[in-house]
From TrEMBL:
Pfam families: EF-hand_5 (PF13202). The lineage of its organism: Bacteria, Pseudomonadati, Planctomycetota, Planctomycetia, Planctomycetales. Gene3D superfamilies: EF-hand. One of its GO terms (molecular function) is calcium ion binding. Residues 40-153 are annotated as: Disordered. Residues 44-57, 89-119 have a biased composition (Basic and acidic residues). Residues 143-152 have a biased composition (Polar residues). The keyword Transmembrane applies. Residues 67-82 form the EF-hand domain. Keywords: Membrane, Transmembrane, Transmembrane helix. This is EF-hand domain-containing protein.
């Protein structure tokens, strides 16, 4: 049975078995009630200036998962449901048979220096200094060539996908070579194009842009179909961290008496814009000069032409 004592607290009476079952029920009920109250109180009201803005930190951790997902696999299994009574009982620090708000886990608070309505209104990269020279692709920045697990004598290629700052991420050198013209010719033709921002152009704008390009490139023998093929092949979305179609190069180091005497290209790759950096595991002091080849053949355009050791 469940009765109230003189202090107003709930006490359990009756046979031990009945009290055990009722005890588990009360603990589970108290946990759910406190968790719901905790979840509601952890979301402060938003200011008027924050309306329509997304919270950068994302939703808070689910309190149910924190409490019952003991193996932290992202789900509450049947076994964990069976153990919920013992989990809740462990939270009863004073062994009073009841759970208070102070005994329940709470969602973590945001950092002390977090000011809602400040950081998420700031433009991405607003304080970022301008990058001199080439524009490296996201996946190529600060890339470590050799790790501790890299086998000795392994040849590693890094970088080689940097674009000219004037081209705003477009692989103009590859596009121009595939069309059979010099980069400056395509760059000049594209200067009169009005690309769509943040999505695909409308049909009318696409037709207008095509007419502009064909007017400038048609005199070089470039057909409408060839322009479409090349444009589609090298189309990509840099804002999503992607890269145009490419094939990484591979090579084998020629070692004689512990010294690198040469390099054998096993796959020339394709899609390189600039000569990649070549590092040989265990021979990091060896410098390699890379020469590229550009072609109208997609499989050879931006490929490795030669690798020479600099002495």
């Amino acid at each position: 049975m469940m009765e109230f004592n003189e202090q107003g607290y709930i006490e359990l009476t009756g046979p031990p078995a009945g009290r055990s079952i009722l005890m588990k029920f009360l603990i589970a009920f108290a946990a759910v009630a406190v968790l719901i109250a905790t979840g509601v109180s952890s979301h402060p009201p938003r200011d008027k200036g924050d309306r329509g803005c997304r919270r950068p930190e994302g939703p808070p951790p689910d309190p149910y998962m924190i409490l019952f997902d003991t193996d932290q696999d992202g789900e509450i299994s049947p076994g964990e449901i069976e153990q919920s009574g013992s989990v809740l009982k462990k939270l009863d620090r004073d062994q009073s048979g009841t759970l208070t708000r102070d005994e329940m886990p709470r969602p973590p608070h945001p950092p002390r220096d977090h000011h809602p309505g400040a950081e998420h209104h700031r433009r991405p990269g607003a304080n970022r200094p301008p990058r001199p020279g080439a524009e490296p692709m996201p996946e190529q920045r600060q890339q470590k060539a050799v790790s501790k697990n890299t086998p000795a004598d392994t040849v590693i290629f890094t970088g080689g996908y940097e674009t000219d700052p004037r081209d705003h991420g477009r692989p103009v050198a590859l596009i121009a070579a595939a069309l059979g013209v010099k980069p400056e010719v395509f760059r000049q033709a594209f200067s009169n194009v009005k690309p769509a921002r943040g999505g695909d152009p409308s049909p009318a704008r696409a037709r207008a842009n095509k007419e502009v390009l064909m007017a400038a490139l048609g005199k070089y023998g470039i057909t409408n179909d060839r322009l479409d093929n090349v444009s589609n092949y090298y189309r990509y979305q840099p804002e999503r961290g992607g890269l145009w179609k490419h094939t990484p190069a591979t090579a084998k180091a020629i070692i004689k008496e512990g010294t690198v005497t040469g390099l054998q290209i096993t796959n020339a790759g394709s899609g390189y814009m600039t000569p990649p950096t070549v590092t040989i595991a265990g021979h990091e002091d060896v410098k390699v000069k890379v020469a590229l080849e550009f072609s109208q053949d997609f499989s050879k355009n931006g490929s490795i032409k030669s690798l020479k050791i600099v002495k």
